Amino acid sequence: MARPREFDLGTALDEAIGVFREQGFAASSAADLSRAMGIGRQSLYGAFGDKWGLYLAAVKRDVTQDTEDHLLALSTGPRAIDGLEILLARVRAKAAQACLGLCAVCEFGRSRAELTAILAAAERRFLAVLAARLREAQQEGSAGPEIDVKEAAAFLAATINAVRVAARSGAGAAQLQALAELALRALR
Amino acid sequence: MARPREFDLGTALDEAIGVFREQGFAASSAADLSRAMGIGRQSLYGAFGDKWGLYLAAVKRDVTQDTEDHLLALSTGPRAIDGLEILLARVRAKAAQACLGLCAVCEFGRSRAELTAILAAAERRFLAVLAARLREAQQEGSAGPEIDVKEAAAFLAATINAVRVAARSGAGAAQLQALAELALRALR
DNA sequence: AGGATTATTGACCAATCGTTCCAGAAATAC
DNA sequence: GTATTTCTGGAACGATTGGTCAATAATCCT
Questions:
Q1: Sign, CA torsion B25/B27/B30/B34
Q2: A178 to chain B: closest CA residue
């Protein structure tokens, strides 16, 4: 060990996340990033290898935090159905801010294996808990007994994306709420 | 008038659409575009002004064609509900190919007025017909009488985006079908 | 205190970016 | 057929790109 890093990796990554969210990967220059992160370019390359490495780290951090938030919301409230509603409410409340994971999917699809792996891991984790919650909701009687919980979990995850896309294209809070309510209606 | 253009604007635009679909705006270079379109760079700038102008023209063409396809699907089948199902089936069938309108929203949000106007116009047109169809479906009895048709139309439009995002992130045909079925379930 | 090691800084690199200029070719108008 | 207009391809533009190098500064370990 020698001279320690002067900046905090996490907070620097958070700034990078902000840049990537607003401009995407391709349109974010190394100069933009180093300026926003408050560090020199060489420090950036030293810490993250290259721009793609920084992007992967940013996506991983953002998507992990996002998933954690989702899981926390899901476990809130007395009944499982409350958790689902709180989850969607939280997504709506934060929808004004672009989602890096969603932007990454749109920008790259499945063309980059490392990126796909990061996104897939987070989604698996989310879907598993979501399906479990849905099964609970079924046992409570707040979700129809005939629905396939795995399919319903995928549907809700897709609904989250739908809400975010709608918000990014200008939908207001009321429209987002109507969207979420209709989606939950499908589970009854 | 003097020498006429040697290439067809529409087919050249279609090639540009393909490039923008796969790479987005920022990552598509003028060289990429002129190569794919089969024309010289100067011809490209002569016909479309600059890269942004070409992008706007490409988005407009793609989104207009897409909307036209949607409206055609909606008017198919004996009952209104058939049209809705056919619409979603068509979206699923074509979901392997990225949607330029959706990518544009993710890449730029509402930050470019000209782009926003193009997307908003197409969406208005689509939502109006969709809402009308939903009202018919209500009168048929295939959609619940208590639902707000405008909200439901926005929900279905959002569902189309959800299906496309899911496909771009790797979902198979069966998962897309389950998604669409659950969405339609919300209208019952 | 001193040597080893690593972060930081700023200059620097080739390559590519979007865009324009130029010269030649081609097609219509008269 | 000539004049005029516009298209076309290639060369060229300055600016910016992602990424590197060498020198300096700062810390840890002994």
A1: negative
A2: B151
- pLDDT tens digit sequence for B117-150: 999 999 999 999 999 999 999 999 999 999 999 9
Residue numbers 24-53 of A with CB closer than 7 A to any atom of strand C: 39-43, 46-47
Query: Does nucleic acid strand C have an atom less than 7 angstroms from the CB of A8?
Result: no
Q: Which of B124, B169, B177 to mutate to test the interface with A (most CBs of A within 10 A)?
A: B169
Long-range own/partner contacts, residues A22-25 (CB < 8 A, 24 or more apart): A22/A98, A23/B26, A24/A103, A24/A107, A24/B24, A24/B26, A24/B106, A24/B107, A25/A51, A25/A52, A25/A55, A25/A104, A25/A107, A25/A108
Burial class for A46, CB neighbours closer than 10 Å (0-12, 13-18, 19+)? exposed
Instruction: List, for residues B147-157, the tens digit of each pLDDT value.
Output: 999 999 999 99
Q: Alpha-carbon distance B188 to B32, whole Å? A: 47
